[in-house]
Each structure stands twice: as structure tokens, then as C-alpha cells.
């Protein structure tokens, strides 16, 4: 039996957004269809860097099964959905001539979402950087700024008559740290501090340029971006661990936040970034956005480690519950994060753009998935959001990660985050208890 929700949507504002997030590369498949170009994750997978040896060539086959997926959301009572647009479908070489066929897919998807009463929230960059742009330096190069703004303009020109919400980036800190610092993600560079700081700053610059390009293209849109924010706590009371946590907070949270919302480079990193930041950059990265997407998974516990970039290593979280990713389950961290953000940045509108958990789900003899741990995860985190709303934080919505089990980057198909199970042989979708939990909560059942 599924656990009954102890929460109710009536505890949240009437216009609260409820739904799910996905990203193009993780669900679409059809990587060689309709003129799509290649991206850094295609290259990374072809180089054998995906742990289970899988690729995203089929993923969830959402490219062909999107109607079924929209129906699943409609039946759950969702009123919002964040998806991402694949840059290499729109501009196969990263810039230049727009591939209209690449945009046709999103055209159909958006119309169907609107018909289902679901608000489409588009994200422009969820990590599928066109390979030709990476070959020219990718996020290490300032040359990326122009192409990203062109792409933003092409996508909004086609879709913004129906898509009200536009998010520029997804988790620039993850792209910079894992993609350019440590090499765990595409494009796989292990450049340490300098790679991280360059990729962060150039994403900030590209984001600022894209926001301005879109605003010039069309007025009245809700513009924003999506950041992965995480309270950084020290492993111990030792001053060097406390300093390590503060430094990681600057790298992970503050470069994106202070850049966008304050037009500022965090003081802790100013010296390290002095050769990267040029005159005028601080004004160019700041923008008065309308809505910030926050992705939250857990706190981060950091300690001093002289052998690692920034002298920061991973500490041991004080938490005995962990997900299948090994991430601690810390719902109170979400409450703390929202309240601290409210206090530090003047309470601008935010929404939870991702929150969820991977578990090693079992299908029982009746073909059902009783994902009790995931249900509990959602219950506790949504309750934390509810508390923050009651305490005055301007949270406008909650989108879970994710609608479907999907291609979890370097882990391939081995980690399941969906509220709907995907059988990767048959592509059959099976709603889990967590799907029913979300539906019951939203419908007030
Ligand atoms: C986030 C990513 C998302 C997914 C979840 C589990 O960092 O934005 O694509 O991989 O983690």
C-alpha cells in the first residue's frame, strides 16, 4: 500500500506550480534525427566514459513518445513542466543557420502541453553543448557568448509566442566543476581551479547576453535561470574546515548567484579570477530576472584538503539516510537554503526546479513499484518548502526530478530518479507510488 500524503496542495498558494522537470539529452533519444548535430555528451559516451556502458541514443524515446508522457503529466494533475531544448537540434554546429526541423519537435510538444493545461517552462542549456563549439574552447572561451545569445534568440523567436517562461542555464556550477574541473562529466577536462572559474564566468556572461537578446526579441516573458544551490557546512569546527566550507560556498553557490543577482564576483575568489574577468563584465553578468529556479538535492559537507582544487575536499555528512547516489537525505537543508536565500537576496521569486532521489526500485510480482523511500523523500521535502512558504519565502512552485527514469549522465541508465518507471527494453512506462503520491497531493485527494 502506498503511504497517504499528510500534506495538501491547499496548504500552498492557489497558483502554485506543481509538476516535473526533465532534460532533452536525458530522455529524448533520436540523436541522429531531423538534422541534429553532435554534442559533448555524444563524444563523452563514445569515448567509453559512461559507467554502465550505456548511451543516450534511445534514452526514454521521448522524442517519439512525448504524447504519452504529456498524458501522464495531465493525469497527475500537473500544471507546469520544465523541459530543455537541445541546442544541437536547433543549431547543429552551434551557430549559424537555424535548423527549423529541430525546433518542430518542441513546437508540437508545447502545443500539446498547452492543450493539457500544463505551463511549458523551457530551459535553454541543460548540458548538451554542440561539439563544434567545444572544439573552439567551449565554456573555457569567451567566444561562446555570441553563439549562446544567437541560440536563445532563435529558440524564443519560434516558441516564445506560447512559452511564457525561459530559463537560460541549468546548474552552471555542475557544468564547470564536473565538466571542466574534475572531468567526471562531458567534456571531461581536468583543469582544476582555472577550468572551473573560467567555465563559471563564461556561463555567467553567456547567460547575461542571452537574457538581453531574449528581452529584445519579445517583451513580457518570465526570464530566469536554474541554479543548483546547496548549503555548505564544515566537516568539523576546525578553522581550516570552516574556511573550506566558505570557499566551496563561494565557488558552488555565490559565483552564479552574486554574478546574476548582484553583478559581483565573490570577494573570496576575486584574486583567482582577476585574469578571467574583464572590465565591464560585472555589469554584463547582472540581470534583473523574474524567476530563479533552484535545484536542491542535499547539503554539502566540506573539509580542508590541500591536495584538491581550492584546498577543499569532501567531508562526511552527519546523516544516516542516503539515496542510491550516495547523497544524504536532508530536507531541513532545503528549508534553511530557502530562508537564507530570502534573507541574503531580498526575497525574489523562486521555484524548486528539481528535487528528487534515485533509489534501486523493485518491480513486484504484480508489476507495481512501491517506492516508499522516494515517497517519503518527496513528503519531507515538500513539507520543507511549505514551511518556507509559510515563513514568507516567495516560492512559486515545486517541480520534482524527474518525470521518468532517464539517462543519468555519467551513471548512464543505472540510476532511477523517475516517478514513472521506464523499461528500457520495451519503453513501457509504469507510474510508481511516488507518481500517485504527487497526483493525490496536487488533486487534494
Ligand atoms: C541534477 C541535473 C539533472 C539530474 C539530477 C539528478 O544535477 O540537473 O539533470 O541529473 O541532478
Structural commentary:
It is a single chain. The chain is of the alpha/beta class. The protein has a single domain, classed as Glycosidases (TIM Barrel), CATH 3.20.20. The chain has helices spanning 24-27, 40-46, 62-76, 87-90, 100-115, 131-135, 145-159, 172-181, 192-217, 239-262, 281-285, 331-345, 372-390, 433-443, and strands at residues 17-21, 80-84, 119-125, 165-170, 222-228, 232-234, 291-295, 300-304, 312-314, 350-354, 395-401, 420-422, 429-431. α9 runs parallel beside α10 (239-262) and α12 packs parallel to α13. Mean pLDDT is 97; it is low at 1-5. The structure holds beta-D-fucopyranose. Residues 23, 26, 170-171, 174, 228, 295, 354, 401, 408-409, 417 line the site of beta-D-fucopyranose.
Short overview:
The protein is an alpha/beta fold and 445 residues long.
Shape: globular
Low-pLDDT residue spans: 1-5
Let me know the largest β-sheet.
Answer: 8 strands, parallel, barrel
Mean pLDDT, rounded to whole units?
97
Quaternary state reads single chain
- Measured distance between first and last alpha carbons: 16 Å
**CATH fold naming:** TIM Barrel
